[in-house]
Design goal:
Layout (H helix, E strand, L loop, with lengths): L5 E3 L5 E4 L5 E4 L5 E4 L5 E4 L5 E4 L5 E4 L5 E4 L5 E4 L5 E4 L5 E4 L5 E4 L5 E4 L5 E4 L5 E4 L6 E10 L4 E7 L6 E4 L9 E4 L9 E5 L2 E5 L2 E3 L8 E4 L2 E4 L2 E3 L1 H8 L7 H19 L1
Parallel strand pairs: 1-3, 2-4, 3-5, 4-6, 5-7, 6-8, 7-9, 8-10, 9-11, 10-12, 11-13, 12-14, 13-15, 14-16, 15-16, 16-17, 17-18
Antiparallel strand pairs: 17-20, 18-19, 20-21, 22-23, 23-24, 24-25
Helix pairs in contact: 1-2
């Protein structure tokens, strides 16, 4: 039997559910919504409100200023749009994202993604192959064991990618035998190319377009062929396959398609 949704509209009101796929939502300032069921949803719109979930694949989202969204289930999503709000996840492959200024996104799970778009918003990850990315001015991206890129600030990670507006980054070493290494455009390192340690050396990987599509697959290019997992496509084949609206992994497909289109556009310029 499907559990009934719970919804509250009063300030400081609480909605909580424990059933599979159940929904909890609030609109009051400071109100709380929480769920524990697999695939369940918790959402809030009030100032400073909290949304949290513990089930696998569950979603927590907030829109209020300073509000918090957090999840612990594998593949779960936490997202916020308010200024200064926080989104955090602990499950493998989970996603944390924020759009507000000063907002923070953080993840601890394997392959999890943290991304922010707001001014001075920070994205951080600690899981293996987890990605941290930021687009806001003075927003820092930190990935302890995965790739990091910042469009307008500093990126720190096992893999980093420079941009024209973010002309320096820090590459983290594979172990304590080596020191972190600062790469700068002024020293000749390439723009929009992944850089990492390879043994004791720092190397550029122009063939590597996407380090993790969200399923553990990397996207590489060789002689105009785009490869990810068992796929080996021409540009036209890649666009057709990864733009398919019925693709079984639409988020991964969108990431792959974006990198293919970006790379192809650079070659045609």
């Amino acid at each position: 039997m499907t559990p009934s949704p719970k919804h509250t509209t009063g300030d400081w009101a609480t909605a909580s559910t424990t059933g599979y796929g159940a929904t909890a939502s609030t609109t009051g300032g400071g109100a709380t919504a929480s769920t524990t069921g697999h695939g369940a949803t918790a959402s809030t719109t009030g100032y400073g409100a909290t949304a949290s979930t513990t089930g696998y694949g569950a979603t927590a989202s907030t829109t209020g200023y300073g509000a918090t969204a957090s999840t612990t289930g594998g593949g779960a999503t936490a997202s916020t749009t308010g200024g200064g709000a926080t989104a955090s996840t602990t499950g493998d492959w989970a996603t944390a994202s924020t759009t507000g200024h000063w907002a923070t996104a953080s993840t601890t799970g394997y392959g999890a993604t943290a991304s922010t778009t707001g001014y001075r918003a920070t994205a951080s990850t600690t899981g293996d192959w987890a990605t941290a990315s930021t687009t806001g001015v003075r927003a820092t991206a930190f990935a302890a064991n995965g790739p990091a890129e910042s469009a307008h600030s500093v990126a720190i990670g096992k893999w980093v990618r420079l941009s024209e507006a973010s002309n320096a980054a820090v590459v983290l070493p594979p172990n304590d035998e080596y020191e972190p290494y600062i790469v700068r455009l002024a020293d000749g390192w390439a723009v929009d190319t992944w850089i990492t340690f390879d043994g004791r050396w720092i190397v550029e990987r122009p063939d590597l377009l996407l380090i993790n599509d969200g399923r553990g697959y990397q996207l590489t290019v060789d002689g105009g062929r785009y490869m990810a997992g068992c796929r080996n496509f021409s540009y036209e084949e890649a666009v057709k396959h990864w733009s398919n609206p019925d693709h079984p992994a639409p988020i991964a497909a969108a990431r792959l398609l974006a990198e293919v289109e970006k790379h192809h556009a650079k070659g045609a310029a």
